[in-house]
Design goal:
about 170 residues, elongated, about 0% strand, mainly alpha, 6 helices
Length: about 170
């Protein structure tokens, strides 16, 4: 076996498990728990941001996608277009597209909303006017709802990617 393919597959599967598992954990357990405890939950999310969560996750996602693209290319280049129309090739193609959608929605929609929440929460200490404070809280609530919706879509896309790649070999 080619060592490059072996290492690439380990990177792809390892980071893919981390990416999908983290998103599933956040969507189904962490975010609802943080929301249920109220304002104190925001401190947990702030601590995650301070630890670089919103930087680490895109890197993990990119490593997953790039290693997957390399593996896909290795098979596609050797077998050509007719391979993509096989059940195996179709499943991997659907999984790859789903992971690209997950990355796009997570990086370009969910992440900016989360970063803005962090910035607005940090600026709350400088606001003394009650009306301005209420406006900031309303904006934060809207951004949280938007981020939550995007996170659920990212989880759906990653669920599709995981399932199609898990069953591709058996189709």
């Amino acid at each position: 076996m080619d060592i490059t393919l072996l290492v690439t597959r380990i990177v792809h599967v390892g980071f893919g498990v981390f990416w999908a598992g983290t998103i599933f954990f956040m969507v189904f357990l962490l975010e609802p728990s943080v929301r249920s405890v109220g304002p104190d939950g925001g401190r947990v999310m702030g601590a995650l941001q301070q630890r670089g969560f919103l930087t680490i996750m895109p890197v993990v996602a990119l490593l997953t996608i790039l290693s997957g693209a390399f593996l896909y290319w290795q098979v596609f280049a050797g077998l050509g277009m007719e391979w993509i129309t096989t059940p195996f090739g179709t499943a991997l193609t659907i999984g790859g597209i789903a992971s690209l959608l997950a990355f796009g929605q997570g990086f370009f929609l969910m992440r900016p909303a989360s970063l803005k929440i962090g910035a607005l929460v940090a600026s709350m200490g400088n606001v003394s006017d009650e009306a301005e404070r209420d406006a900031l809280l309303a904006e934060i609530a809207g951004l949280k709802a938007r981020s939550r919706t995007h996170a659920r879509w990212v989880a759906l896309w990653l669920g599709i990617a995981v399932l199609t790649m898990a069953i591709a070999r058996y189709l």
